[in-house]
Design a protein that fits this description.
Layout lengths: L3 E2 L7 E6 L3 H14 L6 E7 L10 H5 L9 H5 L5 E4 L2 E5 L4 E4 L3 E4 L2 E4 L3 E3 L7 H4 L6 H16 L4 E5 L3 H13 L4 E6 L9 H13 L3 E4 L3 E4 L3 E4 L4 E3 L2 E4 L3 E3 L2 H4 L10 E2 L12 E3 L4 E2 L1 E2 L2 E2 L4 H19 L13 E5 L5 E6 L5 E7 L1 H12 L1 H10 L21
Parallel strand pairs: 1-7, 2-3, 2-8, 3-4, 8-19, 10-11, 10-16, 11-12, 18-20
Antiparallel strand pairs: 5-6, 6-7, 9-17, 13-14, 14-15, 21-22, 23-24, 24-25
Helix pairs in contact: 1-9, 1-11
Length: about 400
């Protein structure tokens, strides 16, 4: 069956945004709001697999069995002039500047915003792809929630959370609090909170101990089996469910399209977030290898949304015949929930290294919830006041290079 091709509108610059996560939604709403009065000249189309916005920062809560609010992407785009297309992106053809959706439709673009994000990387360890649960999507989180509920109803079991980074810590704490009858073990190469200052790291460890989470730092998982995980060295740990949070990977679509990518498959960008090999393609969020003075950015919501907004600003400037400006971003915090009643907020330098100041306990809970709940209302504000989304820490000397303004 041949794919149905959408025809171009004469004189219209077609911008296609692939992915409606934190970065993709920021790019789409910001650009549509800024070009709304020029709808005959600029058309924005958003492509996403589902109509519901996924709050990635809350998926550990979903996995523990807590319901989340429904957030409709088409409803958020109403009034902006942006169009929504539901479907899976199956190919990008950079040479013809087209995108295939569900292998049934072909969308042409003049400018592409690539925001397809990343998923848990289960490819490096045998058995992880077959037997481990992930938090790559809301559907994945619901599958784990069903399994945990079944274990609880059966009287208990062991849950192994692989990865002692932020997602692993949050997930282990949430599961242990929500399902006190389950034995939760947290496994990883580093101790939880290793990137935090002493006070914050001690609070993380104390919270996990209070919740009954068994922590095994300094270990690496060599294999995942149907009812256990095997560590390097041969030790086996029984597990009725395994949650994999150790590392992420991106879809191979960009590499297959001929775009220049790094060793992890992320699109390599210039300072304005354009692909270095195909400048009509902007890459944002987890899908992009964005270099700052301190190194390549790591994927978080606090950095992802600014990349989406900056891409929109750059496209708008280019459409007006002006040169895009370089993107600069500095990190400023690391908020970590430890169940519903506890949290840590580690404030950081722009390069992500910990400062001396941190919040713990109730104050951190309020701070973390404010951060987690902020993206959706931010998109709503940008629809009416696009400039409201264009503020974030630029990072000062940590991100400045010669020629920047």
């Amino acid at each position: 069956m041949s794919a149905q091709r959408e025809t171009r509108t004469d004189g219209t610059h077609h911008v296609v945004v692939l992915g409606a996560g934190y970065a993709g939604m920021a790019a789409a709403v910001q650009l549509a709001a800024r070009t709304g009065k020029r709808r005959d000249a600029v058309r924005v189309t958003v492509v996403n697999a589902g109509e519901r916005f996924t709050e990635r920062m809350r998926l550990h809560m979903t996995a523990a069995g807590r319901p989340l609010d429904a957030m409709s992407i088409p409803e958020m785009l109403e009034g902006t002039g942006a169009r929504f297309t539901r479907g899976w992106v199956t190919a990008v053809h950079a040479g013809t500047r087209t995108v295939r959706v569900d292998d049934e439709r072909v969308l042409p673009y003049d400018t592409l915003v690539y925001a397809l994000g990343g998923v848990a990387d289960t490819s490096a360890v045998p058995g992880a792809d077959d037997y481990a649960y992930t938090l790559s999507s809301a559907q994945d989180a619901h599958l784990l929630a069903d399994r945990l509920r079944t274990l609880g109803d059966a009287g208990g079991g062991t849950v192994a959370v692989v990865g002692t980074g932020l997602t692993g810590v949050e997930s282990a704490a949430e599961i242990a609090e929500r399902h006190p009858g389950l034995d939760v073990v947290l496994l990883g190469g580093e101790e939880p909170g290793a990137a935090m200052n002493g006070k914050a790291a001690a609070h993380v460890r104390a919270a996990l101990e209070r919740l009954g989470v068994r922590v095994r730092g300094g270990v690496r998982v060599a294999k995942v089996l149907a009812g256990s995980v095997e560590l390097e060295g041969g030790e086996s740990i029984a597990a009725d469910a395994v949650l994999w949070t150790g590392g992420t990977r991106v879809a191979p679509l960009a590499a297959a399209a001929g775009l220049e990518v790094d060793e992890r498959g992320r699109i390599v960008t210039d300072r304005a977030l354009r692909s270095v090999s195909h400048p009509e393609v902007y890459a944002v969020g987890d899908a992009a290898a964005i270099r700052q003075g301190y190194g390549v950015m790591h994927g978080t919501c606090q950095g992802g949304m600014p990349t989406g907004v900056h891409a929109a600003l750059s496209i708008d400037r280019a459409l007006r015949g002006r040169a895009p400006r370089p993107f600069r971003f500095g990190y400023y915090h690391t908020p970590v929930s430890l169940g519903r009643g506890d949290a840590v907020v580690q404030f950081t330098r722009p390069d992500g290294s910990p400062r001396r100041i941190c919040l713990v306990g109730a104050a951190a809970v309020r701070y973390k919830e404010t951060v987690t709940a902020s993206p959706w209302p931010t998109y709503g504000r940008m629809k009416k006041m696009p400039a409201s989304g264009a503020f974030w820490p630029r990072g000062g000397r940590f991100t400045r290079v010669r020629g920047d303004r």
